[in-house]
């Protein structure tokens, strides 16, 4: 089992940056592939980025490629999402998620979820 807690959300102007963190509990955190998802009001939760258990490979949605970077520090049981050049359409609640197998792009593949952190990008 792993419990996840996100932090780092907030209000930022378009073009600005934020770094989200997701702290995981448990000694097996390094065994999990991790993902970031987001959900805008009235929309379905969508994939943002994912990273393998060892940080060796990362994957991104086309909408964030080149602007967002996912990384992890297994010694700190933490995964990060660095978000640069933010746009109003990046607004939403951002969730981190964990799964024991490899990376995946859909919500149903993940077993554990955090409570989410709000990101609001104003124009």
Question: Which tags fit this structure?
Answer:
123 residues; mainly beta; four-stranded antiparallel beta sheet; 48% strand
Description:
With 123 residues, the chain is mainly β. It is built from no helices and 11 strands. It has strands spanning 4-7, 10-13, 18-24, 33-39, 46-51, 58-60, 68-73, 78-83, 92-99, 112-113, 117-122. Strands 2, 4, 5, 6, 9, 10 and 11 form a 7-stranded mixed β-sheet that branches. The protein has a 4-stranded antiparallel β-sheet with strand order 1-3-8-7, with no helix packed on it. A hairpin with a 6-residue loop joins strand 5 and strand 6 (58-60). The chain is globular. The mean pLDDT is 95.
* Main pleated sheet: 7 strands, mixed
User: Roughly what fraction of the amino acids lie in strands?
Assistant: over 45%
Rg measurement, Å = 13 Å
Low-confidence stretches: none
What number is the mean pLDDT?
95
The SSE string, one letter per element, is: EEEEEEEEEEE
Find the structural class using helix and strand composition.
Answer: mainly beta
Short description:
Helices cover 0% and strands 48% of the residues.
Layout of SSEs?
Blueprint: E1 4-7, E2 10-13, E3 18-24, E4 33-39, E5 46-51, E6 58-60, E7 68-73, E8 78-83, E9 92-99, E10 112-113, E11 117-122
Parallel strand pairs: 2-11
Antiparallel strand pairs: 1-3, 3-8, 4-5, 4-9, 5-6, 7-8, 9-10, 9-11
